Here is the input.
Amino acid sequence: MKPPGFIYHRPETVEDALGVLADVGPDAKVLAGGQSLVPMMNMRLAAPSHLVDVNRLADLAYVRVGTAADGGREVAVGALARHADVERDEAARAELPLLAQALRYVAHPTIRNRGTTVGSLVHADPSGEMTAVLALLGGSVELRTATASRTVPAGEFFVGPLESCARAGELATRAVFPVPAGRTGSSWHEVARRNGDYAVCGVGALVTLDDVGRVAGARVAYISVGPVPEVLSVADVVEQAPVDAADWVAAGRYAADRLEPESDIHATGEYRRHLAGVLTARALREASARAARLEETILEGSR
Amino acid sequence: MSGTRVFGEPIARREDPRLLSGHGRYVDDIGQGALEVAFVRSPHAHARIAGIDVTDALDVEGLAAIYTHEDLTGRMAEPLPLLIPHAALTHGRTQFALAKDEVNHVGEPIVMVVARDRYVAEDACDRIRVEYEFLPPVVGIEAARAAEHLVHDDVPGNVAAHMVQEVGDAPAAIAAAPNVVTLELEIERSASMPLEGKGVHARWDADDRSLRVYTSTQASTSVRAAIAAKLELAVDRVDVVAPDVGGGFGVKIVHPWPEELLIPWTAIRLGHEVKWTEDRREHFVSSAHERGQVQRIRAGFDDDGRLLGFEIVLWHDNGAYTPYGIIVPIVTTTQLLGPYKPGAYRAEFYSLYTNTLIVTPYRGAGRPQGCFAMERTMDAIAERLGLDRTVVRERNFIQPDEMPYDHGLIFQDGRPLIYDSGDYPAALEKLKKLVGWDEFEEYRAAARAEGRRVGIGMACYVEGTGVGPYEGGFVRVEPDGTVVVATGLTTQGQGHQTVFAQVVAEELGVPIDRVVVTTGDTRRFKYAVGTFASRAAVMSGNAVALAARKVREKALRVAGEALEADPRDLEIVDGMVQVKGTPGADIPLSTVAVLSNPLRYAFDEEAKRATQFSAPADPDKPPVADDDEPGLEGTDYYSPPRSTFANGMHAAIVETDPETAEITILRYCVVHDCGTLINPRIVEGQIHGGVAQGVGGALYERMVYDEAGQLQNASFMDFLMPYATEVPVIETDHLETPSPLNPLGLKGAGEAGVIPGSAVLASAIEDAEGFRISRMPISPSELHHLRESQPPPGSGLRDTGRTGSVPATGGQEATNEEVTGT
Here is the structure.
């Protein structure tokens, strides 16, 4: 469990990093938190010739809440923001509670202290909570090279298990998580074999209510049940239902029927599908309750 | 006896500040200038080695040497020893230090590479090509029994050993019994999994032709003997030291590991210190596993639930080789009796070869499987008769007035299986009170009203501990008052620096902070057996007590001469020898140590007191009497007539999620009897660690081999050891029934906590769910499928003729389970 030799680069600025990536060619890996890459190198599953350590790029260590180009709100996370930074950011928690709701399930606190949110997106592990959060919110990732920059929406970013669309020479510099509009509540539910393990199944839910408390939208996203984060709308089942009368269990069954999870050593695909149904209902119910409370808070505030 | 009472007190572990602040010294901390070793290990479960090509590795910069079996000479070229032979082990087989011609499991070492560091050694390994001719792998008990293919060509049926032990005529007793239950049970593989893997460092001193080996072992004296034998060195030229060891749990009692021979062998050849530090993947595929068994049980009983006859046939997966003999299945078939009188008893086992890693004792060493067999049977009897599960157990207990109780069987140490002591009814009473057994139905009803599903379970065990043949102790009082204690067995975190010091401080009457304990270092104590089978406290605890008593006797004699008092009138309090009831008439034990060693040379003020002109002496007597020795020291040995039997009972309350099938332990209660307690806090720590491993074995851990013999979860990512978050708060109560077999009344405590884990949690989950649990560990996925396979309510008796097929989540097909009455 020792990696083969590699050349280590430690650029001081984003421009330097992009320059190094351009110079060294395709056989390079970017090192941020190293919580997945270093074990893979130790087990010789990954053997890059060049390792570009971006931990000196202080400019990328940020979590910013702001206004998006379309006028909506968003949380932008720089490439060097640790999971723990995002999880504990008060402004981000207030605007977009789903981030912290999901981050609580990302491994263990010590790993969240080192691992970066953008790094986990690029790693594209289909069990990684933040992949589904990005997909559910319709967020995007900014990819830069020495000469160009592009912004890739979540739906195109995740290509397959452990495969994102980031190309050689590109550095993922930030991820953007849009804040859902309207009366929207969120929730994350997950079952793992042990506390902090990869999920057997994890579900994120967003429920939007209209002015009179009827369901206007309901979407869910999954980890560990497919090769990429899976986003589904259950609006067909619950739309227009008053929030107290919506059949979340039916919504869960509807969603589970559309998943094709596989078996592994921890759980059968059949159990995962069953679990997806149960957790979907729970997550939707909780998200809808939060959406309902959100309105009450606003009403109370305006009195 | 003294004012420094420490024996029996819950004092804090003296080794912890050092270990917790990072000052431990493990094998990998030793030998920073050493060459390092990596191995090419078989990636295949069963193959013939057609050729090995090392050409590409030869130009790796920093390479020192590459060895294959061809390079081994003399006894090193022979198979490794079969450590514990047994008449029933008719087809014992062991591996070579480096594979010769054939590999029989993934992970078997083939080529040893020595290099500047481990990185370079692994680079060279990557460039070595081994050509294999594939042979069909035999994986799992079912395939081993079918014997369509053989692991070893010359072992028919893959049967390493077949053994039957019986008392009375069990088949006849069962046939005549009014009630019979039949159970088919299965326990999967797990492993010891110490956080520190194995490791070896060797240094050869060419000038005085001596070898010093550091190894992370549970048996340094025997490793020393094995190295001397295999390397054809005089034992006197070899020393073996177990430095701090980061856990053993059984896997490090096996020896000599190939690496324990190969590292010293290459250190001598290269004339350079050499080390090898096992990594986690190596530990998963090339150390040892345990537990895997399939059991078929028939039990006949009367209408009150009393056993009339008990019969078990079990198939034990021993992996590819049998270096540690058949200890595990022997322990299973003798210890499953627990606290019960089985009526007529018959136990039969087949120990089977498979193309998987070897199986050797892991904490519990076959007892968890035995406990599972007996306790599942007790629950089945209770259910059949509609009796409370504790009532059935109580009716089958051996009673205190029946001690010592002779089962008429032969235990793992070759001695009769005779229980020396124990009060099982009292223990059960304590457990019922601790867990609130009689009040549980109220709790269940309240939980049910909230839509929650809960269950309670219990299990009992008896554990033979402190097996012989012996351990020794050495105690010396230094002239500065330091009390040096040594024993040959090793330490892997048990707290020996604390408990042996407690024993000696109490016996000698000295403050515990003056006592220094060394274990597992053959330079300090040459004769020992090892640390396993919950034996260290019993064996070395009594040995150091006996040695301390010798020292005390001499101290009182020497002090008596100095104080002109009868030794019988003296006592030792806080390191001062004093005349009882006469204040001021005293002498420090350190001075007694000085006086006990007549000197010619005064190198300091203390020493002056022992020189020839310092005190009047009888001119007609030699300074050291004919029957005496200089110095205030003593050595003694403790050798028991047979094992002493500890016991305990666990109860657990679990909650199972009606939707997700997640299993949560709400409460876990332990009543434990290990005789006299040296240190209750350390005993509780042992119980906590054991319970954690029991929970792991019941709910999380399994070794998942696929049909090709590849271990699918050889990492801590996929092999699920429970974290602190998965281990429940453990509530304990002690019962002390001292053993009559040893001076201190001790019984072992090391393994106890793990033994009933699977049995008690299966019992509780079964109680929550209402259907039979026959296979452990159990995951939420498996519980979900068991639920799905149950017949709808009201469609028939849940206990009769039901066959539930459980989808496997691992590489092996699940077996059908059934529980039927006859």
Q: What stands out?
A: The interface with chain B takes residues 1-5, 43-44, 191, 193-198, 200, 263-268, 270-271, 274-275, 278-279 of chain A (CB under 8 Å). The longest helix of chain A spans residues 269-302. Residues 187 and 286 of chain A are 6 Å apart (CA to CA).
